[in-house]
Amino acid sequence: MPKVVGAKLAYSSSELWFNPVDLELNVGDVALFKTARGLEMGTVTRAPFEVSREMIVKKTGNDWLKTAERFATEQDLEKAQNLQEEAARAHKYFKEQAENLGLDMKTVGVDILFDESKAICYFAAEERVDFRELVKKLAQKLDRKIEMHQIGARQEAAIYGGIAHCGCEYCCARWQREFNSVSIRMAKDQDLSINSEGISGACGRLMCCLRFETDSYKEFKKRAPKKGSTVQTPAGEATVVGFNTPKELVDIKINDSGKRFTIPLQDMSASKAAHKKAAENNCPLRPDTVSQDVFEQLGMAGLDALVGALEAEPAPMPKHEEPKKPERPAARVSKKLHGMRPKKQRRRQNALAKEHPQDQKVQEKKPGATRRIRRHRKQETTPVRDIRPGRHQREGN
User: Fold this and answer.
1) Which of 119, 135, 155, 296 could connect to 13 by a Cys-Cys bridge, CB 3.0–4.6 Å?
2) Long-range contacts of 334-339 (CB under 8 A, 24+ apart)
3) 234: number of Cβ within 10 Å
4) pTM of the model
5) What are the residue ranges of helices labelled H in 247-300?
6) What's the pLDDT at 74?
7) Distance, CA of 223 to CA of 232 (rounded, Å)
8) What angle do helix axes 74-100 and 132-142 make, rounded to 10 degrees?
9) Do 262 and 249 contact (CB within 8 A), yes or no?
10) Can you list the domains of the chain with their CATH numbers?
11) What whole-number distance in Å separates Cα of residue 183 and Cα of residue 207?
């Protein structure tokens, strides 16, 4: 099988393969490589290794490779530094002229090849741009052949580089060799919040690292019980409420007590019903049982006490119902209504009595206590009066 060496050029967004010929290249060596654009300087990312012809065709589209010319010398490195300074000045002019012409593009950089045959101008744009006038001005200024190259947001981030959310350098700028498609379904499979800021990179696209673990998440969820399913435990039935996929842990909540605990997936077992269901539906076997031995291995002292409490707990006694207090009768209609004349008071009392007949009670009319006492005293102290006619006349006489 042929040998190839991997190298990263200045403005290449992925690793390129070359034929090392007789050069003993190692990772980190700087060498000159012959490309379709000309002679370019790059850094070795992978030492020579063997691949099949099919892999070469899949990678490059051809069954042959460009070659690595030679190691870079001190003079080559000094020349490359001068070309980088010239490219920086050319990029500044490139940006100014694009703004003056009102072109809807974002200038990324200018790369002058090592053999100085051409200058490649990189830019990013959402739509097609008419840059013919811009190319004329750049050719007059740089006195070289100008090639315009439009790139995407991911390639732009790979060229600029930077620090990602995780605190590490961008994967596309550090080690990633190819750009693969990333979908929102991968974020859902990993139980991530569908928040554009949390799952998007600096390029504004979905983070490339969402693809790295999506296969492991899918494989784990095929073996684990589904979220919300019922699991049998020594403490009674429980419900699966969550996962920790990297550690392969299952979060379970006991239905009776509400207590939660985490258990490794490998420590769970499948019942006969689970085996039967998997055979009938031709689906993966999912465990649905947690044994008492697993509880003891985990050292769940609180759960052991909980199991004993659930087994020894008697049936709940019915609560003693206290007799209800009788409802207070409605207030009687007051016989004395202030602010009314006697005739109006009687009319008002009669109207209320018709509206609320149940509140009216027939009472015997009895004289008040004070009136009875006065009458009794009057009967004892008042002498019998002689009302015979002429008595006073006789006495006066």
Assistant:
1) 155
2) none
3) 20
4) 0.55
5) 272-281, 292-298
6) 92
7) 17
8) 140
9) yes
10) 3-72 (no CATH), 78-151 (3.30.300.20), 160-212 (no CATH), 222-311 (no CATH)
11) 10
Looking up tokens 């009595």 gives 353
Rounded Cα–Cα distance for residues 23 and 71 (Å): 8
Per the rule left: phi > 0, alpha: psi between -120 and 50, beta: everything else, 42 is: beta
| Contact criterion met (CB below 8 Å) for 37 and 118 | yes
Both tokens of residue 189? 């499979």
Q: Identify whether the C-beta of residue 259 lies closer than 8 Å to the C-beta of residue 302.
A: yes
- Regions of the chain where pLDDT drops below 70: 13, 177-178, 298-342, 356-397
- What pLDDT is recorded for position 318? 54
- Give the residue carrying structure tokens 């490359």: 80
> For residue 165, which phi and psi values (nearest 5 degrees)?
-60, -30
What token pair was written down for 223?
């073996």
Q: Which residues, other chains included, contact 178 with Cβ-Cβ below 8 Å and sequence gap of 6+?
A: 14, 15
Let me know if 239 is exposed, middle or buried by CB neighbors in 10 A (0-12, 13-18, 19+): middle
Burial label for 259, CB within 10 Å (0-12, 13-18, 19+), is middle
**DSSP structure class, residue 200:** B
Q: What length does the chain have?
A: 397
